[in-house]
Design brief:
Helix content: under 10%
Low-confidence stretches: 4-11, 13-35
CATH topology of the largest domain: Chitinase A, domain 3
CATH class of the largest domain: Alpha Beta
Number of helices: 4
Structural class: mainly beta
Mean pLDDT: 88
CATH architecture of the largest domain: Roll
Strand content: 25-35%
Order of helices and strands: HEEEEEEHEHEEEEEEEEEHEE
Shape: elongated
Radius of gyration: 22 Å
């Protein structure tokens, strides 16, 4: 259902590469939602059983799949409304509509089978059109059924990796677990002041975008070094989960801000990868903020699984943990 790939901040991504999911803690909070195990039959004739955030079972009618995009709200949520550009956390099952009566539908993707929810940005081009057209405007706590013809899925070329042909109609049941806005934040309290020398001067308002005011006197480290700036008030950070992060990055030598996710898109990175580099976040809670000095990294050649990466200079990185899943 995704198009393209997620981009991590260059310094963090390369450092993580060199160094080496189900309770939700969203800013918006999980929404109360009706839950039912009774079979639900919708206009497509598909029968769905299972309660919200449990593995659904779909039973298909005989006959051809709908030619147009269809959607049915199986359970209406009451939480935050999803807007274009938000990052959503979901559990879902995707199947291919059987082409022959009585044949078994094929499950081509399921977050339930993987044992952890999936997060993604909901905007045009980031997901298949059917997802974007259907999920924008829905509320957290919703269970949505959708049938997606090729034109609103992967087109006439299909998706060979997932076993989807250019004529397959996709059927999804999606549970909306959490929603993060482009400027998502989490509450916390200032923990400590940085030493007068060796660290950047930082504008540090908890719950709002930080800024790197000066890098005077900051030297490039040989290994990642981090300090806690804000102590979170949420759940303890779980190394087995994925973190929802806001990031600000600047060049140590020039002080120039090179990247920021604030107001754009929170980043989703495995907690164990973050904690292995940003050690100041170990044992902390959602809402924590840490500053990290990252060493320069050499260029990385392309491999069978990763594109080539250019060399990067030493960076200052400020990380806010705004959620986990």
């Amino acid at each position: 259902m995704f198009n393209g790939s997620r981009r991590l901040p260059a310094g963090l991504a390369l450092t993580l590469a060199a160094v080496i999911s189900l309770s939700i803690s969203p800013l918006s909070g999980p929404a109360a939602s009706a839950s039912t195990d009774k079979p639900i039959v919708k206009k497509t004739g598909i029968t769905v059983t299972g309660g919200f955030n449990t593995t659904p079972k779909m039973t298909f009618p005989d006959g051809a799949a709908p030619r147009q995009l269809t959607e049915d709200t199986l359970i209406a949520g009451t939480g935050t409304k999803v807007r274009s550009g938000d990052t959503v956390i979901t559990n879902y099952v995707g199947e291919i509509w059987p082409k022959k009566a009585g044949s078994k539908p094929k499950v081509f993707d399921s977050s339930y089978s993987r044992g952890a929810p999936t997060g993604f940005a909901i905007r045009a081009g980031a997901v298949i059109p059917g997802f974007y057209k259907t999920l924008v405007g829905k509320r957290v706590g919703t269970r949505e059924l959708m049938t997606i013809p090729p034109a609103d899925g992967y087109g006439s070329s299909g998706n060979a990796q997932a076993g989807i042909s250019g004529t397959d109609t996709l059927v999804f049941v999606v549970d909306l677990l959490a929603d993060y806005k482009p400027s998502a934040s989490a509450p916390g309290t200032v923990d400590d002041k940085l030493p007068a020398t060796g660290w950047p001067k930082i504008v540090n308002p908890p719950g709002r975008p930080p800024a790197i005011a000066s890098v005077a006197g900051v030297k490039a480290p040989t290994n990642p070094t981090s300090r806690l700036l804000v102590k979170g008030k949420g759940h303890k950070i779980d190394p087995s989960k994925t973190l929802v992060l806001q990031l600000v990055e600047a060049d140590i030598s020039t002080g120039k801000h090179t990247q920021s996710s604030w107001g754009k898109q929170p980043q989703l990175i495995k907690a164990q990868d973050v904690l292995s580099v940003v050690t100041a976040l170990k044992g902390q809670s959602v809402g924590a903020r840490a500053v990290t000095l990252l060493p320069a990294t050499p260029a990385q050649p392309a491999t069978s699984t990763n594109a080539a990466q250019p060399a990067t200079p030493s960076q200052v990185l400020i990380i806010d943990v705004v959620g986990q899943y």
